[in-house]
Design a protein that fits this description.
binds S-adenosylmethionine; Methyltransferase; about 30% helix; alpha/beta; 7 strands; Rossmann fold; single chain; SAM-dependent_MTases_sf; 7-stranded mixed β-sheet
Length: about 200
């Protein structure tokens, strides 16, 4: 894969992102001054789309991206190390590529990065301070449970906690983790799940 090609928009960035409509729903739903967190950014395809959605909508909503920049390692039905080539390309981290892509999309003011493990990063945020947290990090059961337990308290009443790959055949750990830890969560169109915090 050519990681060094020119990037002008999120469409030029490799990734698996398919929740643009959900981003548009969030942009229309939450007021200016809200804060969104994306956990699991890879090279920035989804978070740069979110930045573009908010910019196009004229919204003043800050975005924080959280990623170890070291990949998820082998996982999924084929036990594939999908992020490995990007990690190797950067000598053990793709943080530089992720940051460069955000810069090249013109989104440095809108998006702040925290290069960190998900659970450790959650400690930086006050309880009830986040409007929307979207989880797309490691997809095994224990990791998704840990992510949900770390981030659910950070979501404000009426806010959203959601995640990608809610698909039992490919990602049974995601579906089991969500149903065990957030029984009130539901499917959110095209392989996403969402929990709306009561209150
Ligand atoms: C599926 S990719 C994210 C794809 C991205 N949302 C997109 O659509 O372009 C998963 C990402 O989660 C990150 N990750 C895995 N475990 C993590 C953890 N414990 N904390 C933070 N990030 C993690 C990996 O480094 C990888 O970049």
């Amino acid at each position: 894969m050519n990681f060094d090609g020119p990037v002008h928009t999120w469409r030029d960035i490799p990734g698996w992102f398919q929740w643009r409509r959900h981003q548009e729903e969030a942009a229309a739903h939450f007021p200016d001054g809200s804060r969104f967190v994306e956990v699991g950014c890879y090279l920035g395809r989804s978070i740069c789309s979110l930045g573009e959605v908010l910019r196009t909508a004229g919204r003043d909503i800050r975005i924080v991206g959280v990623d170890t920049a070291r990949g998820s390692g082998p996982e999924g039905p084929g036990n594939t190390d999908a992020h490995g080539p990007a990690v190797d390309h950067g000598g053990g981290t793709f943080a530089g590529l992720l940051h460069r892509n955000i810069i090249d999309c013109g989104l440095t003011e809108a998006i702040q990065l925290v290069i960190s493990d998900s659970v450790a990063a959650a400690d930086f945020f006050a309880d009830g301070s986040l409007a929307w947290v979207h989880i797309d990090a490691r997809h095994d059961y224990d990791s998704v449970v840990a992510d949900i337990k770390a981030w659910a308290p950070k979501v404000m009443p009426g806010g959203w906690l959601s995640g990608d790959d809610y698909q039992a055949d490919w990602w049974p750990g995601v579906v089991s983790a969500v149903s065990d830890t957030l029984p009130a969560a539901g499917s959110w169109e095209s392989m996403q799940w969402r929990w709306i915090k009561p209150g």
